[in-house]
Amino acid sequence: MILTTSSTIPGHAITEVKGLVKGSTIRARHVGKDIIAGLRTVIGGEIKEYTEMMAESREEAQQRMIERAEEMGANAITDIRFTTSMVMSNTSEILAYGTAVVTVRS
After folding, report:
1. CB 57: neighbour CB atoms within 10 A?
2. Across-strand partners of 20?
3. What local confidence, expressed as pLDDT, does residue 90 receive?
4. Averaged over 22-37, what is the pLDDT?
5. pTM, two decimal places
């Protein structure tokens, strides 16, 4: 699967647009990680526990998006974007979305 944030893929021609694909995940903060994060806010620095959690969430959302594109018969996704939003207190949704397409080498 070819993934790109642009609308074109160098060396490929888009022969078919399958449509919008998306994948998402909703994550809740972990009490143990919150305690460590709270301590880090006092002394400063990166809150690695949250950085790791968000990276895992992005990967999961991206993988779900890829699975949807494969189900549609696409071999690439263009115009990929990520967004996040708060669903309720202490939870966030990560959404990955793009355009599923079929490409051939040009």
Report:
1. 20
2. 99
3. 77
4. 75
5. 0.85
The pLDDT value given to residue 24? 97
How far is Cα 100 from Cα 77, in angstroms, rounded to an integer?
A: 5
CATH topology of domain 2-105: Translation Initiation Factor IF3 (3.30.110)
pLDDT of residue 78: 98
* Exposure of 11 in the CB half-sphere (CA atoms within 13 A): 1
What are the E-state strand segments in 1-106?
2-3, 12-28, 76-86, 91-105
Please give the distance of CA 43 from its chain centroid, rounded to a whole number: 30
Pull the structure tokens for residue 66. Answer: 């890829």
Whole-angstrom distance, CA of residue 66 vs CA of residue 48:
27
- Cβ(2)–Cβ(11) below 8 Å: no
Does 86 score more than 70 pLDDT? Answer: yes
Do residues 105 and 11 touch, judged by C-beta distance below 8 A? yes
Q: How many CB atoms lie within 10 A of CB 33?
A: 15
Helix axes 31-43, 48-71, angle to 10 degrees: 130
